[in-house]
């Protein structure tokens, strides 16, 4: 019987408790992996299946924090579910913007709602450390899968070929981690498998140097990642690398000071020609419990896989996003869930970016209003602010998912609709190789699926693109990056309720376009320099 990657990955998490961490990973910044003598490297790798199991851990780390989803953190000082990569990315990319706000008063979490965070912030520390922890695992896997070591272990040629693909995927996931670090924190150290094993202080690199490293890695991976759509669902291929290239090129002016819109358009065209396609299915199929099989999988280039049967992580990933967005008079069973945590809503200004808050004129406007006020007078009150009903733990036909405590809904990290919007923005920003008429046609495919009015070339402006990206991609961990690129994240050019800690919003200092390097990281590595303003 063939066992799917999805099953082997998450069975590995459950059975081994996510304890397979190597003692030689401590060189990577302030991360403190949990040691386990049972899984010393050479003993572990005597099993041919171990290579795929470690790869599964790298992917699973995007969803699950800690050990088998419990509260035993695999990063020093952070509880398991609170160190979930996807959960932390959502906190940084959404709560800091007009798209989301959370009622909870846990530690420094309220400062993320108001752009008042500082270097002592456990959520920023978690985001920073989780990324470097993932990088440390990728580096160790690459050290343990060299040609020399595989030959010494007697690994046969067939398995060597498979491991070569695993190595490429590990490098992609490492590059993905570095993109998040570059985007959020700017100047960060770069560590690879070539660095020495043991405790040392990695050298902090400039944002431009991190960009150059990631760009080189992603280009190089075109020769080693599997062909487009040639991998198991949930694993990346060449197209994912092209997508990430397009994304960093779109933001290159922010990262390096030099625009790369032509390169962005070129990468977008390669993704569009790759075999993935814009899904001609109802918009909400993309965010339902069977989005791995209901047609959405043709559009989603890189999903973070969720599975109610094999993942037992109640507060991580999609379980967090869905539980925390249910409250008030909402019936959790309508969302396919077992209850709500009365946390996340959206802000008035984002609701008003749609033509009608009931979804008339644009089906993507999915808000729960009963008993909810559009105004947020009190951030700590769940019923202040409309709830968002974008994600659902039911299949597209309305039938039940596997369980109602942990969703089956996969998170669409990369999808084709974003590529269409990146292409259009690249054209508007003066990139060569694209044209306005094609850009309009791509945007209108999105709007047709949403039952929204078609646009013309005169409608296609940068302001329109920013608003359309919100309407199409909200709660998909893009908003902060988008607002920074459009110079709307800080300052007073775009205000929303509670920006700057004031109910009607106020301008914030531009230095907050970068997050601070966490104080704990600087304590661990005194060679790190804090970002200006902090």
Task: Describe this structure as you would to a colleague.
This protein folds into three domains: 1-224 and 491-534, Serine Threonine Protein Phosphatase 5, Tetratricopeptide repeat (Alpha Horseshoe), CATH 1.25.40; 229-305 and 410-489, Serine Threonine Protein Phosphatase 5, Tetratricopeptide repeat; 309-404, no CATH class. 39% of the residues lie in helices and 3% in strands. It has helices spanning 5-16, 41-44, 50-60, 85-95, 109-114, 122-143, 147-152, 157-185, 207-220, 238-250, 252-256, 261-272, 317-324, 348-351, 416-428, 436-449, 462-473, 479-485, 519-524; strands at 101-102, 300-304, 344-345, 367-368, 387-388, 411-415. Helix 3 (50-60) packs parallel to helix 8, helix 4 (85-95) packs across helix 6 and helix 4 (85-95) crosses helix 13 (317-324). The longest helix is centred in the first third of the chain and has 29 residues, at 157-185. The chain starts with a helix and ends in a 10-residue tail after the last helix. 53% of the residues are buried. The model is unreliable at 1-40 (pLDDT under 50).
